[in-house]
Structure formats: C-alpha cells, structure tokens
Amino acid sequence: MGKIKQSVPWWCYENLGITPEDFVKMLTEIGYQGVEMFPPEHFHLAKDNGLQIVNTQAHVPLEVGLNKRENLPDIEYQLKERLGWCQQWHIPSLIVFSGNRDGQSDADGLDVTVENLKKLVPLAEAANVMLVLELLNSKVDHPDFMCDKTPWGVEVCRQVNSPNLKLLYDIYHMQIMEGDIISTINTYHEYIGHYHTAGVPGRNEIDHNQELNYAAILRAIAETGYEGFVGQEFIPKGDPKAGLEAAFYICDIS
Fold first, then answer.
1. Cα separation values, 242 from 77, 140, 224, Å
2. Mind listing the pLDDT tens digit for each residue in 67-126?
3. How far separated are the first and last CA of the chain, in Å rounded?
4. Cα 179 from chain centroid?
5. Quick one: which H or E segment has residue 189?
6. Is residue 53's pLDDT more than 80?
7. Across the chain, where does the E strand assignment appear?
8. pTM, whole model, 2 decimals?
9. In this predicted model, what pLDDT tens digit does every residue of 187-224 receive, in sequence order?
C-alpha cells in the first residue's frame, strides 16, 4: 500500500480568526506535512516550518474556466505566473477548473476543455508541474459547474493524454453527485493526482456525524499505491485543532 501524506487548505481557516502563523503551527504540531492554496506572501512561512506547499489555483475565478475558448488568454496568463511560483517554491501541482456551463452542452464543453488543455499542458510539462482538474458538485455548492462527474473528467484526461494532467478527486463533492466512492477510486485511480476530504452533508468534520467511512476510503486509496497528499478540506464547526487532529488519525493509513 502507498503511504498517505496529509495536507490542509488554508481557505477553510482564513475566515475563522486564525493567523497564518497559528495555522502553520497547528498543522506541524499535529503532524501534517503539507499546506494547500496558501497565499504566496506566506510561502516562506510554510517552507520555514517544514511544510510542503502542495498546490495552488492555476486561475481564478473557478466559474470562468477551460470550457470556453475566449477564456484561454487570461487563464494562460495566470498559469504562467503560477508556474513561476511552482518553480521557485517547488510546488508540484496547480488546480485547474472547467468553469460553468452557461448553456453549453457537456459534449461541447469537453471538446473545448481538451483543446485548451492541449495548449496549456506543454507549459506544465516543461515546468515539471502537474495540472489537476478539480471535480466539484453542481447540486449544492457550485451550481452549473461543468466538471461535476468523474467520467467527464476522466475523458478529458484520456484525450489530453499527458502524465502532467490528472484529476483532483474531491470525495465530498463526488459523494454528493455520484456516491460509490471506493468503487470509483478503484476504477479510475490512474487518472487521479490529488484527493480532498470533507464530511457529507455539510462539509464539516469527518466524524460520526457524517455518512462517509473515511478510514475505509483512505485504505482503498492507499491500496492503489497512491503516495501523494490527501487534503483535509473541511470547514470546522467545533475547535479547529481538535477537528484536524481527529481527521489526521482517521486518515493516517500506510
């Protein structure tokens, strides 16, 4: 089995009155090895405390994405800047987004997303950075988002056909849209470059109040040989450190 490393996205805590310094201290005390989506002005803080900067967003906003040709110039501009961050700070991956449908069919959106990624992936290959296309739910959190089903995202990866493009499989989002989490991971794990967690329903702690068995899910991920990071992307309702400690031990699989 692979050894699972764990990370935490900053955005879940930045509005809770926690300073970046206290956030980093909390993660290192628990045993987390990485941080996600940390502001570039705080990259040095993560590195100085031994945390891997696992990823950041390749472009924003996520609603304006790769499924429209007119979006490519701005996305490419942002991507090039962030690839510079990756090379300077040894960040292994950037998160990319399909964008919203806005009346576009899934078939047309897939074709355009593939077309745009075929132009962008060579930049990532040259920088030795992986692009991860995130799967988000369109039922609760991101209405009209196009990349809301695993097979759609897998088909994008198949057609682009690069080792530098994989999926960000967000377990929370895909439980809402599809369920069948462990079977999906077993079927498509070769296309998955990163994972996110959160409790369902509510996107809160991964405790007994939610419907997923994360210990079993993490064992399934480890059994695929995955050796990357799993990001604990939940918004705590209770004490943040207690929630992160509990999640860490649930997912501490090797």
1. 40, 27, 29
2. 999 999 999 999 999 999 999 999 999 999 999 999 999 999 999 999 999 999 999 999
3. 6
4. 18
5. none
6. yes
7. 5-9, 34-36, 52-57, 93-96, 130-134, 165-170, 192-197, 229-232
8. 0.96
9. 999 999 999 999 999 999 999 889 999 999 999 999 99
Q: How far is it, in rounded angstroms, from Cα 238 to Cα 106?
A: 39
Residue 1 confidence (pLDDT): 43
- Residue 125: both structure tokens together: 């290959």
Q: How far apart are CA 167 and CA 252, in angstroms?
A: 22
> What is the full DSSP assignment across 65-116?
-TTSGGGHHHHHHHHHHHHHHHHHHT--EEEE---B-TT--HHHHHHHHHHH
Distance (Å, whole) CA 149 – CA 65 = 16
Q: Is residue 2 scored above 70 in pLDDT?
A: no
Q: How far is CA 192 from the centre of its chain?
A: 10
**pLDDT over 70 (residue 184):** yes
Statement: 5-250 belongs to CATH 3.20.20.150: yes
Number of residues assigned to the chain:
254
Distance from CA of residue 146 to its chain's centroid? Answer: 16
Catalytic residues: 134, 233
Q: Between β-strands 52-57 and 93-96, what pairing exists: parallel, antiparallel or unpaired? A: parallel
Handedness of CA 105, 109, 110, 112 (dihedral sign): positive
Confidence check: pLDDT of 129 > 60 = yes
